[in-house]
Every structure is written in C-alpha cells, then in structure tokens.
Sequence to fold (1040 residues):
Amino acid sequence: QDPLALITGPCQLESHDHARMMAEKIAEACAPSGTRFIFKASYDKANRSSISTQRGLGMDEGLTILSKIREEFGCPMLTDVHSESHCAPAAEAVDVLQIPAFLCRQTDLLLAAGETGAAINVKKGQFLAPWDMGNVAEKIASTGNQRIMLCDRGTSFGYNTLVSDFRGLPTMAKTGYPVVFDATHSVQQPGGQGTTSGGQREFAPVLARAAVAVGVAALFIETHEDPDDAPSDGPNMIPVDQMRALIDRLVAFDRLSKGL
Amino acid sequence: QDPLALITGPCQLESHDHARMMAEKIAEACAPSGTRFIFKASYDKANRSSISTQRGLGMDEGLTILSKIREEFGCPMLTDVHSESHCAPAAEAVDVLQIPAFLCRQTDLLLAAGETGAAINVKKGQFLAPWDMGNVAEKIASTGNQRIMLCDRGTSFGYNTLVSDFRGLPTMAKTGYPVVFDATHSVQQPGGQGTTSGGQREFAPVLARAAVAVGVAALFIETHEDPDDAPSDGPNMIPVDQMRALIDRLVAFDRLSKGL
Amino acid sequence: QDPLALITGPCQLESHDHARMMAEKIAEACAPSGTRFIFKASYDKANRSSISTQRGLGMDEGLTILSKIREEFGCPMLTDVHSESHCAPAAEAVDVLQIPAFLCRQTDLLLAAGETGAAINVKKGQFLAPWDMGNVAEKIASTGNQRIMLCDRGTSFGYNTLVSDFRGLPTMAKTGYPVVFDATHSVQQPGGQGTTSGGQREFAPVLARAAVAVGVAALFIETHEDPDDAPSDGPNMIPVDQMRALIDRLVAFDRLSKGL
Amino acid sequence: QDPLALITGPCQLESHDHARMMAEKIAEACAPSGTRFIFKASYDKANRSSISTQRGLGMDEGLTILSKIREEFGCPMLTDVHSESHCAPAAEAVDVLQIPAFLCRQTDLLLAAGETGAAINVKKGQFLAPWDMGNVAEKIASTGNQRIMLCDRGTSFGYNTLVSDFRGLPTMAKTGYPVVFDATHSVQQPGGQGTTSGGQREFAPVLARAAVAVGVAALFIETHEDPDDAPSDGPNMIPVDQMRALIDRLVAFDRLSKGL
Fold:
C-alpha cells in the first residue's frame, strides 16, 4: 500500500495569486513528512445553498489558473465538474476530475468524465449507502477508465447533519478502487445557517485521524489562510498554518495503520 | 383552496401507443371525481442505479410523443429535465418541468428551467430539510418565474430507506408555493435491490391518504398497467386499474381536509 | 371497527383538584362528538432529562387521586409504570398500564404488567422498527393477557429529533393488536432544550390528522390548561380549550377513514 | 493520560468454569502488551429481543461466580444492573456497575447505582445525542459518586441499524469523565434477525481502531471461544483466540494517539 496522499486546497479558486500562495503553503506543510498532495480548487460552486452566495471565477479563468499552478508547482491538480461539457476542457487543465456528491448518480456526467481518461474522484452521495457506490464506479468503468477513487463525505443523519460511518470505508474498498475520506465536508452542517451551510471545523482532524486508522488511500481536507473569511466552506476548513502539524500527525497514524 | 390535483403517468415513456393507452385509462379513473390530472412521463432516466438498466426513448422522440398526447387529450403534461440544454425544448412540449430531487441544488438547472416560464415542480432532495426548500424556490423565483411547486418525495433515513416527515408539508407551504406529495418515490427503497431500487407499493396509498389529510395541492402517483414489468419504478407504482378507487377515496379526504 | 378513542390528560398529575378540573374539561370537549376517552396522568416522571426537574406526586398519592377521578367521572384511567413492583398497585387504581418507550424491551416489566390482567399500552421505543413490536407484544401475551395496545411515539431521526413513519401504523396493526398514535410525544425534541425536552406543539394536530387518515384505534394527546407552565411536556401539549375543535375534526377524519 | 484499558468478557455468564476459562484466555491475551482489563459478564439479559431467548443464570448464582472470578484472577469485574434492588448486591461482587443503554435515563436506577459508591459505566442510549449524556452523568454525580464512565455503543440510524458518530467521543469527554467505546454493540443490528439481534463482527476491530485513534480511556469488546454458539451477541463478538493480535494492534494506536 502507498503512503497517505492528500487532496487539499482552498475550496473555491479566488485568484491566481491566492492559489499560488495556498499551493506554496501547502507544499511547505507537506514537505517534512514527504506527503504527496493533489491541489484542489473549484472554479464554480454550482450548487450553493442560496442564489445570493458567490459561485466563483467560472470555467475559462479557473482552468487557466489551475493549469498555471500545475506548471509552477508540478503537483497534480483536481477540480470538480458539474456538467458533461466541462469534462473535456477540465481534463486538459487538471489531473483529477471530481464528481460532486449530489451528482454521483448522473449517468451522463459519469460517462463524460470517464471518457476523458482523467482520474475520477467520485463523492458518495449523502443519500447513498457505501455498498451502492459499486454501481457508480461501474458506470465510470464502462468507459474503459479504471482510474477511479471513491470518496466518503458523510451520510444524511436527520436534518442539517451528516454522520461519518467508518464501516463505509472498508465496504467501498471491496470494489478494489482506492478510498478517500473527505474530512472537510463530513463535518458540514448542510443548510445549517439558513442561506449557507455551517460546519464543525474542530471535528475535521478527529474524523481524519479515525479514517486514517481505519485505512484510506487519501484524505481530502480543505484549507484556507483565513477560513472565517473564505467565500465558501469557511466553517469547516482548517487554517493553513495548522496543516503541517495535522499532516505530520496523520502520517504517523497512516504508517502505523499500513505497517509502513 | 383548489381541489386536489393529480400528477400521474407511467414513470418512463415507453411508446406513443403506451402513453396514449395510459392517458386514456387515467382520464377514465379521474373522470368520476372530476379530478384534474397532469400527465407525467420521463423520456430519459438519467440517474438510474446501474449503467445496465434502461434509460428511455431520449429527448427528441420523447418530447414528440408528449406533445402529441397533450394535443390528443388536452391535459397538461409534465416531464423531468436533467440538463440546462433540455429545458427550452422540453418547455415547448410540456407544461410543467420537473427538477429531480438529486438535482434540486443545481443552480444552473433551476435557472434554466425557471427562465422558460413553464411551471416548475421541484422535488425536495432526500438530503434536504423541508425548510431548506425556501432557498431552492428563491433560485427559481430569481428568474421572475413564480410558478413553482415544491414536492416531497421522502428523506434519507438510514441506508436504502426513505421516511416521509409530514411536518414537512406545512413547513414547505410557508413559502407560499403549492406543495405536492410524491407517494410513489416516498416508498422507494433506493438501491435496495442491488442494481435497482426496491419499493413498497402497499404503502403508497397509506402515505397519500396521510398527505391529503394534512393538506396538499397535488399528489404525485405513478401508475402502470403492469407494474411488475415496467421498465422503472415497478416496485412502487400503482396498477392503473386500481387508480379510480384510490382517487375517489383520496378526493373524499381532500374535501374534508379543505372543507370543500 | 370502533370509532376513534382518545387517551388524554395532563401528562403529569399535579393535584386532585387539577386532575378533576382537567377531567371535566376533557369530558366537555369529548361530549359533542361522543368520543370515548381514557384519562391519562403520570404520578412519577421517572426518566426526566435532568435530575433537577420535577418528578411528580409519587405512587401512593398519585394512585389515590387517579382512583378518585375514576370514581367521580366513570372514565377509564391510564398511568405509566416504571418498575415491576408498581404494576400490581397501579392496576388496582387504573384500567390501563402504560409501558414507557425507553422500557419497552424490559422483559420483567412487560411480564409484571401483563400479569395484572390490566390492559397494556406499550409505546414503541424510539430505537425500534415497527416490525420489532411483535416480539414486545409476545412478551406480554406470554402471560395470557391479550389486552395489548401498541403505540407509536416517533422514531429517532438524527439528534434531538423524532420522525413519525406512518408506514409503521399498518405494520404494527398486522400483529392484530389495536394501534395508538401518540401525537404529543411524536413532536417532542428530546433533550432539545439542554436540561429539558423541547417540542413542536403546532405539528401535533397535523400528525394526528395523518394518523387518523391512515387508520388508528386511538390517539394519545396530552393537554393542559396552560401548557407553557406545565411541569412537563409543556412545549408539545395542546391547550385544553382547543381540544373540542381538534377532536371534532379528528372524528370527522376517523369516520371517513373507517367508513362509519 | 492512562494507557487504554479493556472491558471484556463473554457477554453472558454461562458457568463458573466457562467464566474461569474466558478470564484465563483474556489474561493471556492482555499480558504481552500489559493491558489492564475489567472482566465483564452479565448474569441476566433482561431486555432480549424475544421472550424465547435465554436470559442467564440469575443474580444469586451470577454474583457468586463473579466474586469468585475476582478472587481467583485479581481483576476488576463489571456487570450490568437492570433494577434498583440489584445495585447494592451487585456492588458487593463487582467493581463497576454498568447501566444499559435503554435504561440510561431511568433516574432511580442511576441514583441507586451511584449510591453504592462503585464505579459506574453508563451506556449512551441509542436515542440520545452525545451532549445529552452530561445530564445523565449529573444524575449519578448528584449522589456524590464521581466514578463515572460514559460509553458510546452506537446511535439509531434508520431501522435495525446503528451508526458510530466519532464526534461523540470528544463531545462526551468534555464532561470530564472518561469515555469508553463499545465496539461490540456498535456493530449490532438490533432486531435484525427477527427474534434476535444481528451483528457485523468484521467491523468491530475497524471501529475500535477508529475510536482509539480519536482517543478513549477504554474499549468495551465482548469475546467468546465460539461466538456462533454463544447464548447472546454471537454475531458481534470477537473469537477469543483473535484477541491478543487485536489488543496488540489497538495498544499501538493508543500509544500513538496519547503520545505514550
């Protein structure tokens, strides 16, 4: 088994300068432990709680920035896609296409993403059981693309709350595809603040540690230099200056978990 | 308040002949009680559990059939849309565009649907609280289109199970928009049969009666002449020859509920 | 089928005078529709959220008052029992022993209650599926006592919230025992106010109407002349001066539902 | 922080010989890692799913055996109590009284247990939020007994299923009392086999590992030499010959988690 990888970045792409600054800080946080990271940023938040919240830079500007960051830092890049027509251009700019949880059953999107040949990180819908993800993976695999990651980001538990069922990680791993745990969105409180989602940032490291102890290929953790002023997911992002300590600790658990 | 309306039809559009036969039987079932119905059929099941299940006739053939049925029967028509580009053509052929539950947070789809000026029936995501639907309606209303219906089709409750929380109907009604209860998909067992969803048909009339007693503008009930051989949603559809008795009974509850 | 019966009263027994006043007002509210009622009051709230909330008058004083109310009003009486040793004395004073939801799996309590020969109203645990109540009923029936009622008071749904699954009423009815719907505790928010439980009084009539439309033998609705100052369950009790209108409306639905 | 302790034993007390054999095997499994264990066995399964399943040896014989095992092995003993009158005699024979999850809100039982001065391990009800356990602990502490442990054994999640929310462990730890994770009952499927509860033994070590990574004072893991023939909880108990490897692994995670 490979050491833990990290999918990390600032949720929403804000500007080239901001992305570069975040990538630098992340690279610094990962270097001591030698942790490989995939830089994640969204150019369009297409499913915000409310019409009045910020959606982002849009595809053209967003993908341009992402491909520049890839050049400058040499790190693999991930972004999420919300429609079939975005898959091919996004796959030019980034290495991993991410299927949002709400869209994980949309056959056309899964096929369009799969057909690019890019790696696909598909989030488990909050409304799906872990064992239902086999059918989701098969839709992608039907394109001949087996570069699939299955990502848990919590399951609906009553209203405005998610719960992380850690039985789901080994259950999804039975598909043979690498499993990712999204510690950021698992502590989201969907719709919990009226027109935006709330979050419980203090539990992200707790659940991340549990996931690594259970055993995962990668963790997804969003970060920001000032989460309380971030344009999205602020309540559940980790301040970037806390990332190095967090990564070091998670890597220690990963080594123990995998016998590395 | 208006008497109960019915959104009904055979889940998936199978052929012009089949749709005509179903529309005839439905018209007969509704006539004795004078119940207005909106004919519902899908031309594309874009989010099936598994890649190997039937998706339907496709948009062009589907919309042609739907507009013919509308001409022949003079009844309003409803179909569901899964991408922005389908909204305008679908709005030519039908009167009501339906936003699927999984897609109820996709801003672009809501806006594209709203901009057609058609009536919009938006299903509450299984992952959303009833009070979160206000934000969803506002996205549509931001286009200037206020012809919005909010539809409950169950909420995630553990794995492979939905529950109908009838507090949600008056909660959604506080938005001022008419509320619909989907008795067919509320008894679905998502993913419950491995590669297809299961269902508990026997509970659809039970929940429909409860919803009408609580008070709704419309019920959504799918029907088929042979549910066990229907291409989708068979386990939760009502046999069409049982529809008249069911409608008559529901209308009696509606009259009592609304004091008509 | 018999017309709807009502289990009603002031949650906690406060004094002989208060119980008499409540019984009078309830009798007045039930008279116009000819609704039979069972007077319910608890002499000991043995499972309050917090140690610092009021528990009640205790068994001796409580049972004395209950038996006097029975004499004065000639109505059947119900109280809840929390330990084996209380069953026999309680069965002297009242007609129906109620098993609290948290205790519905305690074999000794079920047997002790059953052995009194009194009717038993057993609440479905918030942690149980409706079909699990068959085993609970069998424990009681093993004493030779078949006078059993199964009562739904909501099911755990996330934290501090209950949901009423109306599929549970016909499911429990398959046991052959009469089914009761508890509209008061189904809208409880357990632990939702820190050291006491909250509630959503406005939804009690909504869920009651749904239950009657589905079909139940009896409704359980607590009432008080001043719910906001009641010693327990205030947030979900119905003001007693609203009971007549509520009962009249529920009886109309019951007649329609049962074809009476 | 102290190293991880283990609460372990054969769910149901079967005989003196069986208990002695189990204690020997457990002592052997714990010795290499120097893990302290508390021997757990129940003399009465008072809340079985069905009336026709075995309840155990009863209090007199049970407590006699438990006190003999304590003498022979010198290990602390734990048993669960279901009524006030059992607390004092049980506290003579064992060191820790356990309050079952269904009974965690029964004030009299909590007080009677607290008044013995024994340590109390109180299980979080499947129907309670983690933050609701503060009120439960306060009931016990009102007796002057502060030797309280709070134990998570899963939370209701749909029907016949529990989920372990690992945010609950640090939430309960905020009370200041040591927190225990029950890996055996957290993988129970309550009522899942008709007249008995099912279980998912394969996930007990998974969840145990997650809990230790998050950080707990103790783990509760039931074990048996032949789980499939055990009189209760067979589907979720760990075979005793697998305990040493499991304990060794968990201790490694505990050391990392606590920096020992």
User: Anything to note?
Assistant: The interface with chain B takes residues 155, 157, 163-167, 169-170, 187, 200, 203, 206-207, 209-214, 252-253, 256-257 of chain C (CB under 8 Å). Helices of chain C lie at 16-30, 59-73, 84-93, 107-115, 133-141, 168-173, 204-214, 243-258.
